[in-house]
Amino acid sequence: MGISLDSLRDKNLMQLKKLNIALFPVRYNDKYYADALSSGEFTKLGYYSDICVGAIACRLEKKEGGAVRVYIMTLGVLAPYRGLGIGTRLLNHVLELSSRQNISEIYLHVQTNNDDAIAFYKKFGFEITETIENYYTNITPPDCYVLSKLLPCVNSKK
Questions:
Q1: Residue pair 132/112 in contact by the 8 Å Cβ criterion
Q2: Sign of torsion, CA 22 8 70 89?
């Protein structure tokens, strides 16, 4: 009875779609799923006792000067399975992968009233760097915070 992670592929994409419908008030479009599939190891499904109960989906973004940053599009775990370390395992996977691949920053958007998510990310060293008003449509409140974590670049020249 453990936690395991699996890569996202065409054959298990429907599991991510079903999780997102259960977890988030937002409906994601085809581009979201294309980005999740193309991010390779940066998108993972989380299983508890072989049941898919969570996922992290990321998009890789190139910045000026060639630096790459990771955008966490979604990270969620079904309510009955929260507190078991699944979200931590998913986020740690992306943090470790990012540090090995010379990624400069990881960031995400969080609804301003999502205190649990904000506290979760702060435990991992993320900081609120910006507030965006009316970021979301059709959900209340519509405002979000940008949470960022800068990573020490492994290959940076000092």
A1: no
A2: positive
Give the strands of the sheet with 3-7, arranged side by side: 3-7, 44-48, 51-62, 68-77, 105-111, 144-150, 127-132
Would the pLDDT of 158 be above 70?
A: no
- 71-106: pLDDT as tens digits: 999 999 999 999 999 999 999 999 999 999 889 899
Helix (H, G, I), strand (E, B) or coil at 131: strand
Rounded to whole angstroms, the Cα distance separating 47 from 2 reads 8
- The residues assigned a catalytic role are 71, 109
| Full set of structural domains in the chain with CATH | 3-150 (3.40.630.30)
